[in-house]
Automatic annotation (TrEMBL):
Catalytic activity: L-serine = pyruvate + NH4(+)
GO cellular component, one term: cytoplasm
Domain spans labelled Tryptophan synthase beta chain-like PALP: 7-292
Name of the protein in its database record: L-serine ammonia-lyase
GO biological process, one term: L-serine catabolic process
Pathway(s) per entry: Carbohydrate biosynthesis; gluconeogenesis
Organism, scientific name: Tenacibaculum aiptasiae
GO molecular function (one): pyridoxal phosphate binding
Cellular location(s): Cytoplasm
Lineage: Bacteria, Pseudomonadati, Bacteroidota, Flavobacteriia, Flavobacteriales
Top class in the EC scheme: lyase
Length: 306
């Protein structure tokens, strides 16, 4: 069996929420990954596949976490990695990626512009272009989250997951299909300024947002992958939008509860059992995917929280 770079992460019950509601709320702690987010799962699956075909160069477009995980996996496997980030990416994240030996280029004001530049760059350099979310290899890797959960707990009534471009959602839904969790409800969470899945689900077609305006930059894709919408039709889905303030408060409340600081993008999911228990009225066993995130510069987040 090959050595994995990603970890089998634990599931912790929220004793706080059980005492308050009471509900059995379980956290899948992918914030404990070496790169602090679930992204490493898909990136390892993708890199190993392409390296097996003789590829040694990779170019990614990322607002942070995908590029950071690609840089980590690339360093472990000894391949060349370049990450193209939009200008909204913090110096904090750029430095983290550079520390892993990857080259970083800043291009465009939003992820979509960085994405187009990265596509051209990959073609010119004969490199593999790595999407942050739109690749079946990523979804296959992310599905391992549910494979682990199926061994760690009984089937939940509801799974709560944040959605950016839809890569994690695709992996979670594919994992749920594989493990027979098709009658489990899925609550998707996004911040109001980045709700591309919410709008697409309501319209029953892909809707491209005019702009991204949120502190939860990891959710900042103007449109989701079409596969997310296709898979969602096979499940009972409840899309939810929360404010930046709500997502950020959930991140800090989670810090108080579990001594781990996660991005507001992850806080969006945690905010449902914290602040919207009415959405879980018919559920007793709830699984929250704590997707984590490495963009957790404390002073920056705390300034917005105040």
């Amino acid at each position: 069996m090959r050595h994995k770079f990603y970890l089998e992460t634990p599931i912790y019950q929220s004793h706080k929420l059980f005492n308050e509601q009471p509900k059995n709320v379980f956290y899948k702690m992918d914030c404990y990954q070496p790169t602090n987010s679930f992204k490493i799962r898909g990136m390892e699956e993708l890199c190993r596949h392409h390296i097996g075909e003789g590829k040694t160069k990779f170019v990614s477009s990322s607002g942070g976490n995908a590029g950071y995980s690609l840089a980590y996996v690339g360093k472990q496997l000894g391949v060349s990695v370049k990450v193209v980030v939009p200008s909204t990416t913090t110096k904090f994240m750029i430095d983290k990626i550079k520390d892993l030996g990857a080259k970083v280029e800043v291009h465009g004001n939003v992820w979509d512009e960085a994405h187009q530049y990265a596509l051209k760059s990959a073609a010119q350099e004969d490199a593999v272009y790595v999407s942050p979310f739109d690749d079946p290899l990523l979804w296959k890797g992310h599905a391992s989250i549910i494979d682990e959960c199926a061994q760690q707990m009984e089937q939940p009534d509801t799974v709560i997951v944040s959605v950016g471009g839809g890569g994690l959602l695709c992996g979670v839904l594919e994992g749920m299909k594989k493990n027979g969790w098709t009658n489990t409800q899925v609550i998707t969470t996004e911040t109001t300024g980045a709700a591309s899945f919410y709008e697409s689900y309501q319209a029953n077609k892909i809707v491209e947002l005019k702009e991204i305006k949120t502190i939860a930059t990891s959710l900042g894709a103007k449109k989701i992958t079409t596969k997310a919408l296709e898979l969602a039709k096979e499940f009972t889905i409840k899309p939810v939008k929360v404010s930046d303030a709500t997502a950020l408060k959930a991140s800090f409340d989670f810090l108080n509860e579990k001594s781990v600081l996660v991005e507001p993008a992850c806080g969006a999911a945690i905010s449902v059992p914290y602040f919207h228990p009415e959405l879980l009225a018919e559920s007793n066993n709830i699984l929250v995917i704590v997707c984590g995130g490495a963009n957790t510069e404390f002073n920056y987040l705390y300034q917005h929280f105040k």
